[in-house]
Specification:
single chain, FAD/NAD(P)-binding domain, protoporphyrinogen ix oxidase, domain 3, 3 domains, seven-stranded mixed sheet, five-stranded parallel sheet, 16 helices
Length: 483
């Protein structure tokens, strides 16, 4: 009998990871990617002679899915830790340290919040009211801003929660789902009348320091690859053993009596590809369009089409280290900028401070004398700023950076990377939409979905969806004994 055939549509890290997880199946696996290169938002290129990620530049260590995959494909020895994880908020014309013991900006330690200086005296007084307010009722999903604002007031939402969520989703807290974006806190909130105490249950206080002893170092939250996360897609693709095709856009998907039919390529020169199983590792709307020809999945088509996406740009700037004040930025990995500040840049990463391995090349003109700074521009609803040309975006980023850090003179090298429709918005009702998608897909033999649209936008969460999709395909083959 002929071997089974699995087609994975999408060659980002989700699709490649799904191919890797299917490597032991008695099936041929083909990955079809419409772009000229693999990897999606994981890519790197040089700025001032330093190879710097142009998309995602870190992944969470507490979720093992990402680091386990990295180790499995032979890149484990390249995992490195940040030099510092101390970060700041630009608020009321100054940089303030990010308050301790907080969960995406929602504080457990109100004294630590006061010491940070992020809020005004009135904003801090309102935040302290959380401790004495009766429980806030919540009937189903609600926007983050509505629930957290009811507990702590709008200033804390605007100056802490919104920029932290914006840094992850490029979204706005008045639209984002409390249950989908702050799931552990949403669960804990039902057990405590005070939201600060709910956060405290998730981020307990460190043990008291012994007299005369140094405080124990805080474990690193993030990690990356010394060669950049842009090296991961090629390694996963090679380890998967799958057939990889780029410039292979899938235009149609339909059922056949014994599997699936895909139409690949241009309308002028279409190619039919047949498969026993299909994994859609695509953003929500392209997945919705492909599923529109499949009977019985209208609920998934509707729910996928309802997931909005934010566009953004990463402006990477290189400066001689002498251009920065001696004390500025050296102890910080970066800072966030609240939308209420009216700045173009929403987040800044001091890449060569956060990742010291980037400066290990020696020499008077080498990377050791260069500071690399990544500036993130664009939130949902701010697409107009992204219509500016590259030179304008560089000028905007450099001006904001100069005003906030004292950087002097123009950068010596720049890179602008545009990510159109890059980040799915987990708006109110997101979990119900995902449940509808998965229920409809589960009714289709040999069909699975994965990617950032479902359970989280970080690499570990995306890899977890790929693993689940691969398990679904494996179960389908076991049930049908297809070899």
């Amino acid at each position: 009998m002929s071997r089974a055939h699995v087609v994975i549509v999408g060659g980002g890290i989700a699709g490649l990871a799904a191919a890797y997880f299917l490597r032991h199946e008695p099936a041929d696996v083909t990955v079809l990617e419409g772009a000229a290169q693999l990897g999606g938002k994981l890519t790197a290129s040089e700025v001032a002679g330093v190879s710097v990620d142009a998309g995602a530049e870190a992944l969470l260590r507490r979720r093992p899915e990402g680091t386990d995959l990295i180790k499995a494909v032979g890149l484990g020895e390249q995992l490195v830790l940040p030099g510092t994880t101390a970060s700041a908020i630009w608020s009321r014309d100054a940089l303030h340290p990010l308050p301790p013991r907080q969960f995406m900006g929602v504080p457990a330690d109100l004294d630590g919040l006061a010491a940070s200086g992020v809020l005004s005296a009135d904003g801090l007084a309102r935040a302290r009211e959380d401790l004495g307010l009766p429980a806030t009722p919540r009937d189903g999903d609600v926007p983050v801003a509505a629930y957290v604002g009811a507990r702590f007031g709008p200033e804390l939402v605007d100056r802490l929660v919104d920029p932290l969520l914006g840094g992850v989703y490029a979204g706005r807290s008045e639209q984002l789902s409390f249950e989908a974006t702050l799931g552990p806190l949403a669960a804990a909130a039902g057990q405590y009348p005070s939201l600060a105490r709910a956060v405290a249950s998730l981020v307990p206080a460190p043990p008291p320091a012994r007299p005369g002893a140094d405080a124990p170092p805080r474990p690193a939250v993030f990690t990356t690859l010394a060669s950049g996360l842009g090296a991961l897609p090629a390694a996963v693709a090679a380890a998967s053993g799958a057939t990889i095709r780029t410039r292979a856009t899938v235009r149609e998907l339909s059922r056949t009596p014994d599997g699936w039919r895909l139409v690949v390529g241009s309308a002028a020169d279409p190619e039919e590809v047949h498969a026993d199983a299909v994994v859609l590792a695509l953003p929500a709307r392209p997945a919705s369009r492909l599923l529109s020809r499949v009977p019985g999945v209208s609920a998934a088509v509707t729910a996928l089409a309802a997931i909005e996406y934010a566009s953004m740009a990463i402006v990477t700037l290189a400066y001689p280290r002498s251009r920065f004040p001696a004390t500025q930025g050296q102890a910080r990995s970066g800072y966030l900028v609240p939308a209420v500040e009216g700045r173009a840049v929403k987040a800044v990463t001091f890449s060569t401070v956060k990742w010291p391995h980037l400066t290990q090349t020696s020499g008077p003109d080498g990377p050791s004398d260069i500071d690399i700074i990544r500036c993130s521009i664009g939130r949902i609803g701010e697409e107009s700023v992204l219509q500016r040309d590259d030179a304008d975006l560089v000028a905007l980023a450099a001006a904001d950076l100069a005003g906030e850090t004292g950087a002097q003179g123009p950068p010596v090298d720049t890179r602008v990377t545009r990510w159109g429709g890059a980040l799915p918005q987990y708006t109110v009702g997101h979990l119900d939409r995902v449940a509808a998608i998965r229920a409809a897909v589960a009714a289709q033999p040999g069909l699975a979905v994965c990617g950032a649209a479902y359970d989280g936008v970080g690499i570990p969460a995306v890899v977890a969806t790929a693993d689940a999709a691969a398990q679904r395909v494996s179960a389908f083959f076991q049930e049908n004994q297809k070899t």
